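Minutes, methods subgroup
Present: GH (chair), OT, SY

1. OT presented the first of two proteins processed in the latest run. Sequence and structure tokens recorded below as shown on screen.
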Amino acid sequence: MMNKPNLSFWQIWNLSFGFFGVQIAYALQSANISRIFATLGADPHSLSYFWILPPLMGMIVQPLVGKWSDKTWCRWGRRKPYLYVGALVAVLVMALLPNSGSLNLTVKAAMSFGLVMLMLLDTSINMAMQPFKMMVGDMVNEEQKAKAYSVQSMLCNAGSLVGYLFPYFFTWIGISNIAPEGVIPDSVTYSFYAGAAIMIFCVLYTGFTVTEMPPQQYAQFHNISEEDKSENTNLIYLLFHAPKAFWQIGLVQFFCWFAFLYMWNYTTGGIAENVWGVDPMNTTSKEYQNAADWVGVLFAVQAIGSILWAMVLPLFKKIKVGYSVSLVLGALGFISTYFIHDQYTLFVSFLLIGCGWAAMLAMPFALLTNALSGNSIGAYLGLFNCTICLPQIAAALLGGVILSVVGSSQIMMLVVAGVSILLGALTVPFIKEKR
């Protein structure tokens, strides 16, 4: 097997730059979906159910994109055609989703329209995200993978920073962040428009600056024979023959992504009640909308923490040590939110949460791709996305029950998230790193 050459920093940068734009779209979705559906009239105890669709679509789309792109070779490349299609659909949906409450529909019809748009948005974002992870696995050697995924994590979090701050920025320049009952504020709507424009630019940048390996060269670098090309790539078959690392990292992923769904779902209500002292059900109040805008700032702080921590992660000599330490810091960040009633002190909590998030975006993929052969890497990365989606579905289904157990306190849901991610940190040492 030929060794893949080292890539320059800018080659690694170009591989993942489009992720910056795609992540803006994902951040806007993550930070504003609960706000949008609460504004449309959803009950807090049912709010987590709206989060079932995004991971469910990810479970369906990403394995298929991985499997199909493993066998795709055309003039535009191997992974890039899926990137282009996903980005185009996402841009169209981002123009429609924030207008769910402005189409003179009934409350039920507006939420149904919003759900369809959410399903399409998450499907397209998943389709656009996956090729970036695969291209790093395809083109970067084992020595540079941790660095490449850390760069991807940094760009990802930089995109999150922009997406989270957009509503606050538009409010700051004078765009209204309040609206009639059932209507999404203009500050949120304009944020989605701006995010769509940036995303398409970034995706095209990566498309024009990256040339994927042709089939023959890819086979040489990944030691793929003619017999390997004809092997069974049925997803069920691959799942049963997955390396141990796939399942071990998947267990860590379960606890981590279970936690972060509750952050996206309950931070707005939790901060509104714990810092602003307002009833989370009172979504038309100026205080609630101010709290919702501040959540965007806190998520931006989390992204800053992730960007900074992504620069630290490559300094750990052992990937698993960096992974564990990061998750413990993230757990402390979640739990500390319960004890903080000052909006600015929460910066510390979300900087710590950012450390856990940076590791979640980089370390699992570095560990997994080093344990995989090159023939079905796309399919395995697609299947691995189920370890991101399943815990979110589980968390969404259990959200209303757990919320009732903790006295309907949304800030307590962040404590639950902290305990979950701490359990993830405790399972990291059991991961088998080598192929």
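2. SY then presented the second protein from the same run.
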Amino acid sequence: MQVYLNGRYYSREEAAIPVIDRGFLFGDGIYEVIRVVNGRLFRLEAHLKRMDRGMKGLEMPFSEKQRAELPGVMEKLVADNRLQKGEGTIYLQITRGAALPRTHAYPSAETPPTVLVMASPFVPDKEILEKGGHAITVPDIRWARCDLKTINLLPNVMAAQEEKKRSAGGVLMIRDGYITEGYKNNVFAVFDGTLWTYPDSPYILSGITRDVVFEIAEKEDIPVKLSPISAKEILKADEVMLTGTITDIQPVVSIDGRRIGMGHPGPVAKLLQRGLRQRMDTE
């Protein structure tokens, strides 16, 4: 597999960063994951705009020239890694670069950022998309700027490990008694035909797939309510689903062993799945 690192292409085994890189030392960076479908980068500009917002929030310098080069880098990696057919993902990570001395404050704005881009094959989990997943809840112990897609992911890693230990198929995070999102996806619930989801807030990362859901809902005349859902109320939902770049639209058929709705994927989830798939196959 070929990767891009700071202006050059390497095999994945050869690529390396300095030990003084601030991403390695401090988690000082942002990232994006972009879906590749038959060689096309799905909603690339939306991902890059979210990247721009994250870099602005972290006050990370990044030139217009560097940003303009990213789509071409990604397209080359898709071709070089033979992802023109089938599905894959692009992983983009930008850190504040390598700097000495090791101090918490930002280094000089002239410090070159570290830019890493990787492309990998991806196979969606069709079984969980068709049958739904059995989710668990965990406390949301992340920091208060979840709206920035940073590489500080230890709480997410811990949630994923809990999911693995409990053989679950999804995680819902709870902050102050309310469901915020998953560790890698947003959460939607259906109550009496209305689609509910946590409102835009520093406590969630507004997903690209989340925006696609809003588009489909508007086209299909599905009402949307941006409002927190309590951990108790979500158990009474007709449907619950997780949405994300590599999650797609995944129905949740139980939470902490409690059945959701009829215990199988519902009509709203199936409609949204069809709408997402149509867009991914044509855009």
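Chair's summary of item 2: The chain has seven helices and 16 strands.
Next meeting: continue with the remaining queue.
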